[in-house]
Specification:
Two copies of one chain form a homodimer.
Chain A lengths: L1 E7 L8 E5 H6 L7 E6 L2 E10 L7 E5 H6 L8 E5 L6 H8 L6 H12 L5 H14 L3 H13 L12 E5 L9 H10 L4 E5 L9 H6 L8 H11 L1 E5 L7 H10 L7 H13 L5 E8 L8 H17 L3 E8 L7 E2 L1 H12 L7 H17 L8 H10 L2 H13 L10 E6 L4 E6 L1 H10 L9 E4 L6 E2 L4 E7 L2 H13 L3 E3 L1
Helix pairs in contact in A: 3-5, 4-6, 4-10, 6-11, 6-12, 7-14, 7-16, 14-15, 17-18
Chain lengths: ~500, ~500
């Protein structure tokens, strides 16, 4: 049947969608969610069918922007509609829902269809649900990781040893990555690090680094930077590595679902896609971080190591203390100030951040064989103390594209203790929320600077932290909240 | 933030959806799939947020038809956007995915949100997945049934005894309902039957009955028909009973998922919503029907009876032979011809259809107490033979709105046996497919009329069935297919 195209000025961002009138669908024996071939001139595309009851003429076919553009429609063109086959991955998705273990080629087909935009949100949700309800075993997880890597861009290097790190997250201020990279790279180890932006936190590593240099760099340029300075610290989304992951995260977000196998595959795919073979994983454990349970952390640790082996990756997992923020700053630039103070050997640099950076760097130096067993810490400290790490940091910043350092926020307002006592608990989530209310991560210099940590004695009226914000509204939002709930338990 | 509305001329048919530019979303700290409150003048609605990357101005908000209309937007109006809470049912949906048994009030909340258009397709898919992966036990299934009924329209009658029937389906020509209804109603039992239309079959009961009278009748009018003639046979979709069911079926269709508990709840809700308390369920078992496995049929039978009890419904389940088509006609009107021939005591009426109708009617007559035990068959036969059932059938047809009987199809072409032998197998799916190729169910008089059943001796060249179609194209489609694959195994 020939229908007149009608452009819907919206991108679906996923599968291509076409809309026809109910009566037209009936005539063509087509149903909601059917795949249809659309043909206009010599161009053919497959769309998912949506059906509308009224307010839409029977002679027309509505095309969301992607489909309209893919069909190269010109004025006066008509579109021919006929049924198309279902994508091959529906069978294995159904099998997974039934609890069947999937084969590597089946997982690859699913990921291929996800990246190719061949699956609807409903179909992807069934895949996520199946993985959540029945789990993915180690072989499936390794196969899913490979499938994600194979169906995305990949960076390869001449170096035999490629280091990488990952943190499961949830601890405010935990900006260890831009500290570890220059130490490890200064020792001569390649470390091509891609990071993510904040979704619900006050800063992701990419947001923090972006406050002082460019982080959106294409794959070709990244290869050159790696060759020139030995590493980088960029935004993963700018390179389109592990593209399937973004689609799956979109489906997982509404329910905050993290099927363990998918979480593992997602992380490992990002490492594998930059050809990393020596990887450390940081799992902070605490009541207000992603991983609340030490036993589960141990289980996850074992799986990371096993799956790493299956991918030819040496993996060391550290279960760390996630009970309170690390460093002083919470917010993109305020966290980078801490990082730079550590690198510059500033006596006021936060000790906990410095310690965590040295510890992680020393593990990487030993596991890559750069330092002998037991000598990693000494080497890391030396690279820091000598200024070599600071020098390397600046080389990387210059290679990525240095920005002028931003000015600190206009408003800096202390939040004070209501009573005298000892800090017993700092609620990570509350601190993160207040930093976001102050404007982080969008306004890169906003957030807060912490003055008191767990175990510190405070007097009534002492500043617990200082809010940083660039306009009065933001100050008020954050302060109103902090006065009701500072995030500190003092006893 | 105030945005200029832009109407997208499409109905989503589900949750209301608004679209904003990526940068605007960033500024408002909103994410894909977030709920937003939209306010225009005094009107407020909650929408699901979609985010677009380009081809869409930052100052505008795209509104799909339902949202645009709900906001009563007039020229020059702006729309205010701010975050909204997530619907209450996301927590129990998540719990179900984790394998938790849901409470009646949780299931009611989920169904309420489904009917209210508060859940996205992704969220509904998680619910279906959870029910599929972890199952629904008897209490959950009964609670889901009640939730579906409570969140939809309901028909109530003065009669203490209300009979109903249901067939799991998959057998071509199995048009027993319009035969059972007049027999049972003629005996003085109320039988308010709603049926469905064909989705992938050549005819649903509603399609068949519609070939001779109106089947789309509102609830108010149905009550009057029931009072006047004691029963009806209409299309369920015209009454909006069990509305939640349609939403869930939309989600189940892409993967042909039938979570057992949902299937049970869906069927039982349709019975419960017409206040039925004496119900027979027919589960045909055969290689090419929905239920392939006698053991599973037995399991389903037990659950139907248990859940019926929990709902105050007396249920009798019959596991029947689904190995071949029933009656001669396959296609809406051709099936009604069989039904009317049985009711008119025509000597050429199909014996198997007549036998199944009498059997089902007699079970209903006995279970409702209208006939004594062992006397049901005699009563049913008598009602048929005396012409009382045929009279009642005509009363019902008149009450619903009789149509002029359609003319038989213009083209009637036999499909013949390729060899001499005995009919060993008739493939239901092939027969159904050929009937659809001939034009059923859209063209009500098309389909096919079967001449040979399993066990019949045939000579090469004997007609196995006759195709009925109204145009040469349809004849060719069906004949081309039938010549390659008649659907008959002859040995």
């Amino acid at each position: 049947m020939l229908l007149k195209p009608y452009k819907i000025q919206i991108k679906t961002g996923g599968i291509m969608v076409a809309v026809i009138h109910e009566d037209t669908a009936h005539q063509l024996d087509l149903h909601l969610g059917d795949r249809v071939n659309l043909k206009s001139g010599r161009t053919e595309v497959i769309c998912m069918l949506d059906i509308t009851k009224n307010g839409f003429p029977k002679s027309r076919i509505g095309l969301f922007a992607e489909a309209y553009e893919a069909l190269n429609i010109e004025k006066g063109d008509t579109v021919e509609v006929y049924p198309a086959d279902k994508p091959a991955s529906l069978l294995p998705i159904r099998a997974k829902l039934d609890g069947v273990r999937l084969k590597p080629e089946e997982l690859n087909q699913i990921v291929k269809d996800i990246v190719g935009g061949n699956l609807s949100d409903v179909e992807m949700t069934y895949f996520v649900s199946g993985c959540y309800a029945h789990g993915l075993d180690d072989s499936e997880t390794a196969a899913l990781t490979k499938a994600i890597v194979n169906n995305g861009k990949k960076l390869s290097f001449k170096n035999k040893i490629v280091a990488d790190k990952h943190c499961i997250g949830g601890v405010p201020g935990n900006r260890v990555t831009p500290l570890v990279i220059p130490i490890v790279v200064a020792a001569g180890i390649l470390m091509p690090k891609t990071s993510s932006r904040a979704i619900t936190s006050p800063a992701g590593t990419a947001d923090a680094v972006e406050s002082i240099c460019n982080v959106t760099i294409n794959a070709h340029h990244l290869q050159k930077i790696a060759e020139k300075v030995g590493g980088f610290m960029v935004w993963g989304g700018g390179v389109d590595l592990a593209a399937a992951d973004d689609h799956m995260i979109k489906i997982r977000n509404p329910m905050s679902l993290d099927p363990e196998g998918m979480l593992l595959a997602s992380i490992m795919a990002k490492k594998h896609s930059v050809s990393a073979n020596h990887v450390i994983i940081d799992i902070p454990v605490g009541e207000e971080v992603k991983m609340k349970d030490a036993e589960k952390a141990q289980h996850l640790k074992d799986r990371f190591i096993k799956i790493g082996k299956m991918l030819g990756m040496k993996v060391i997992v550290m279960v760390t203390d996630g009970s309170q923020p690390i460093g002083y700053g919470v917010g993109p630039y305020l966290e980078m100030v801490d990082v730079m103070n550590v690198l510059k050997n500033d006596p006021n640099a936060p000790e906990d951040l410095k310690e965590k950076g040295i510890m992680e760097a020393s593990v990487l130096l030993e596991m890559t064989g750069k330092a002998k067993k037991g000598q990693g810490r000494k080497m890391a400290e030396e690279l820091l103390k000598s200024g070599k790490a600071w020098k390397k940091f600046n080389e990387i910043v210059d290679a990525q594209g240095r920005k002028k350092l931003p000015k600190l926020a206009k408003f800096q307002v202390p939040v004070v203790a209501e009573k005298t006592g000892v800090v017993k608990v700092i609620h990570n989530k509350t601190i993160a929320h207040i930093a976001r209310l102050a404007g982080a991560p969008k306004d890169v210099v906003s957030g807060l600077v912490i003055h008191k940590k767990i175990g510190d004695r405070v007097k009534k009226g002492d500043a617990l932290y200082t809010l940083h914000a660039n306009n009065q509204d933001r100050v008020n939002y954050a302060l109103d909240f902090a006065i009701k709930n500072s995030g500190y338990d003092i006893k």
